[in-house]
Write a structure and sequence with these properties.
single chain, 18% strand, 31% helix, globular, alpha+beta
């Protein structure tokens, strides 16, 4: 069987945790050194992974950025299929023995389930978006037991941070890391509740995406499509704990420790790639003429949007930012936002500054003792221009 989805014992609940999988391994105590939410060392791990630390607080170490798309989009892909395409190419060329990634749970198309894939054609099972938590890194031990010494891993930032922290002890011959940006994750059950607020037939939704044109796109089993402006989303109606504190305090939205990051924020309708090192370049070059590449664009001004987001987050006093506005104004603002709002690289920078500010405000309110160890310097650099600077007890002594 080329797709293996092991079962893992459920660990005891802990505080700031996205269940990356380390706590389910033979040595759960490794969490102390590997967890992004304890005392992350991004400069140190950037030097280990990329050969140098980054001076760029927005995007981290990079060789190149692209607006990209597969010329022939893959059926069932969330965008065009670049992420799974990169991994499939590694398997097809024998560069890796296996890929660790997520596939849909058999009982719920939206629930993620960790899988070990060893055949290129089976990467199609990993296409599409999953919402929820799943212990990806717990696959490292069964992969090793199966004799897999050359791995590719597709992961979100908190998973990739832990992977890099453990990498030198894994005994791997080769490791390729394909990262996707992440924030605002929630449980699969909460996600179903969100879908039910968007449509009267949530069980027929096959696709959901937050797009860079300020719309959420829904697709349905009958082939129909619906676009919902961000400003018309029922975010203010969601329960206070819909997004856990871990995902409201994301310090690495762009997956700084991946070899290549595949996202959407600066793609303006296409995908957005950050090639970070030689392994990332090797993976992208492997797709050759299958992928269309161009320089990302930029337009608009993000400052007022970011300032408004920060003020709403302050006023919300925890939980979700306030999003309410008079009903008569919503259609006008929904029409204006994609026309005058930041786009391309400016949109990406806006999201990163918003996430950085959200991290500071929520941690300061809910876990102030964690501020000095959990918030890295690149986050403070993003918030400084919005009068969010560290207080005396919020930075490390070292």
């Amino acid at each position: 069987m080329s797709v293996t989805t092991p079962d893992f014992a459920k660990p005891a609940p802990r505080g700031l945790c996205t269940d990356c999988g380390v706590s389910r391994m033979t040595n759960p105590g490794a969490c102390g050194a590997a967890c992004q939410f304890i005392k992350p060392d991004y400069p140190g791990l950037e030097k280990q992974v990329h050969g140098r630390a980054s001076a760029d607080p927005f995007f981290g170490v990079q060789q190149a950025m692209y607006r990209a798309a597969l010329k022939k989009p893959a059926t069932g892909a969330q965008w065009t299929g670049i992420t799974t395409g990169l991994a499939a190419d590694l398997l097809a060329k024998g560069k890796v023995d296996a890929v660790l990634c997520m596939v849909p749970d058999e009982s719920d198309r939206w629930a993620p389930r960790p899988a070990i894939i060893t055949q290129a054609e089976d990467m199609q099972q990993a296409r599409g978006m999953r919402m929820g938590y799943a212990p990806l890194l717990a696959l490292l031990e069964p992969a090793a037991a199966a004799g897999h010494k050359r791995l590719a891993v597709i992961g979100i930032p908190c998973q990739v941070y832990a992977l890099r922290a453990l990498e030198q002890k894994l005994g791997l011959e080769r490791l390729y890391v394909i990262g996707t940006p992440c924030s605002d994750n929630t449980t699969t059950a909460n996600f179903h509740g969100f879908l039910a607020r968007l449509t009267g037939a949530p069980e027929t939704v096959t696709y959901l995406e937050f797009r860079a044109d300020y719309h959420v796109e829904l697709r349905f089993e009958d082939g129909s499509q619906r676009l919902i402006p961000f400003l018309k989303l029922p975010l203010s109606d969601l329960p206070r704990d819909f997004f856990p504190l871990t995902c409201r305090t994301c310090v690495d939205y762009t997956n700084r420790l991946a070899d290549i990051t595949v996202g959407y924020m600066a793609g303006e309708g296409d995908q957005w790639l950050i090639v970070r090192n030689a392994r990332g370049r090797e993976m992208l070059d492997g797709l050759g003429d299958l992928v269309s590449l161009q320089a990302p664009g930029t337009r608009g001004n993000r400052r007022s949007a970011v300032k408004g987001f920060i003020e709403n987050t302050r006023l919300a006093a925890g939980g979700l930012p306030l999003r309410r506005m008079p009903d008569w104004l919503r259609p006008l603002m929904a029409w204006l936002q994609p026309r005058i709002g930041p786009r391309g690289m400016e949109f990406a920078k806006a999201r990163l500054e918003m996430k950085a500010a959200e991290t500071v405000l929520h941690l300061r309110r809910e876990e102030p003792a964690k501020m000095k160890n959990m918030v890295p310097d690149h986050v403070w650099k993003l918030t400084a221009k919005y009068d969010l600077s560290p207080q005396d007890d919020e930075t490390r002594a070292d």
